[in-house]
Write a structure and sequence with these properties.
Number of strands: 22
Structural class: alpha+beta
Strand content: 15-25%
């Protein structure tokens, strides 16, 4: 598509709210102006656009590719992500093609432990599975239905900056297969353009080297295990290709897709000396070769190539707001360092950003709007900062093979401890009125530094 596609009709043809800064050029066509521009229509961008549009703001949602499109992901969603889908009004019924899962099966140290998702007031007691090409498409269409204006094949390049203040007031882009140059104008721009986030880099926001990064590699196999109703995590990831076996800092996963295939992959941290030296695609092949033959994780059953992607963790790009630009999802390094989960935090940060923007737009003066926007980084740190600090400590610990081996051998033999660990790693607690485990985890998150 070379032009915008709309959801529910939007009666406004021009922006009537007072901008935060100098107005965009009067000759800019109205269809290229909005209250907010969201760059990237992944889970973070679509969630942001949905909640903004639902609140009555005029939103442009710019996506560089066309749907459906593939993304590297485990495709497994925890109850935390499920809650966000419900909040967006997505039909998550089995009839609509969603596969529900009951919990997590953990394998390591010669043991196997199956844990149901905790029963909480704050989150549902089930997760979901859905391929990312279809998943992202559904979220973008839901944002459209709410009133967001979606441009597909819209490759955003340079930000448009106010010459006096340096604030972002729009973006330059190339639209459609013919790559037609266009400009879009809005007083607020949201960067939801993933780990590479070119827009953030153009605004001088670079990745923090002191924060963990991960890599995910995965592929699909036809398999009789396709309808497994538990997500499966292998805590011991061995590289057995050399003269001596090596325990790697990461985990393997097997998620049944319910469509005749399994998503099989690895999540690996950059805390090991071997991180840069290994070909992770070859490690995945070797790991799959060690699986039981009857599971079908063999080359002839592979339905697609092995693909990889970076996992930006624990606020690895800051500040999350500067000069009219807000960062959400992977662009702001929102991936959970405990378990590599990104979709839930992408959607949550989109909802948080939307709430801040809506409140800012209701202020009477530019100074008051700016004051509201500057609260966004603090809200993120209050929400996740302490928990992510604990996660960074966890990442350093499991980066030591001896610690990881001890943890798997000793921990899996204690179901009560593992239930606590599941709540901790998946960030699933009730903030009020929870059990003793919830109170311990919430207390630790509150006292940890919110860096």
């Amino acid at each position: 598509m070379a032009g915008p596609t709309r959801g529910q009709p939007n009666s406004r043809e021009t922006v009537v709210t007072e901008p935060l800064t100098k107005a965009a050029p009067a000759q800019a066509p109205s269809e290229h102006r909005a209250d907010v521009i969201v760059v990237g229509a992944g889970p973070a961008g679509s969630a942001t656009a949905y909640h903004l549009a639902r609140s009555g703001l005029d939103v442009l949602l710019l996506e560089k590719t066309a749907f459906p499109r593939e993304k590297v992901c485990g495709d497994g969603l925890t109850p935390r992500a499920t809650k966000q889908l419900v909040a967006m009004g997505i039909d998550i019924s089995e009839e609509a093609g969603w596969l529900r899962n009951k919990g997590l099966r953990i394998i390591g140290g010669g043991q196997r432990l199956q844990l149901d998702w905790p029963e909480l007031a704050s989150y549902p007691d089930y997760g979901l599975v859905r391929k990312r090409d279809d998943f992202d498409d559904q979220l973008a269409r839901q944002a459209q239905k709410a009133g967001a204006r979606l441009y597909e094949r819209c490759n955003v390049g340079e930000p448009i900056l106010d010459a006096r203040t340096g604030r972002i007031t729009g973006v330059h882009a190339k639209l459609g297969e013919e790559k037609k140059p266009v400009t879009f104008h809005a007083p607020i721009v949201v960067a939801a353009d993933g780990n590479s986030t070119r827009l953030s880099l153009k605004m001088g926001l670079h990745r923090r080297e002191d924060r963990p990064m991960g890599v995910a590699v995965r592929t699909y196999f036809t398999s009789p295990r396709h309808d497994d109703d538990y997500l499966e995590s292998w805590l011991e990831l061995w590289d057995r290709r050399g003269e001596q076996d090596r325990l790697l800092p990461g985990y393997g996963w097997i998620f049944g897709m319910g469509d005749g295939t399994s998503n099989v992959g690895l999540g690996v941290l950059n805390t090991s000396e071997s991180f840069q030296d290994l070909d992770w695609r070859e490690v995945l092949k070797a790991w799959c070769a060690s699986m039981p033959q009857e599971w079908g994780y063999t080359p002839e059953n592979m339905t697609g190539p092995i693909r990889g992607a970076a996992l930006p963790m624990a606020f690895n790009r800051q500040p999350h707001y500067t000069k009219g630009l807000l960062l959400v999802g992977d662009a702001g390094g929102l991936v959970n360092p405990f378990n590599g989960e990104g979709i839930a935090y992408a959607m949550e940060s989109g909802a948080i950003a939307a709430e801040v923007i809506v409140q800012a737009q209701a202020r009477a003066t530019g100074r008051q709007r700016e004051l509201a926007l500057r609260s966004y980084p603090k809200v993120l740190k209050d929400t996740y900062g302490g928990y992510y600090t604990l996660g960074r400590a966890f990442v350093k610990l499991i980066g030591n093979p001896k610690v990881m081996k001890l943890a798997t051998e000793r921990g899996l033999s204690h179901p009560l401890l593992m239930r606590f660990t599941l709540k901790m790693l998946a960030n699933l607690t009730d903030p009020n009125g929870g059990d003793a485990m919830d109170r311990i985890i919430n207390g630790l998150s509150k006292v940890a530094p919110k860096a």
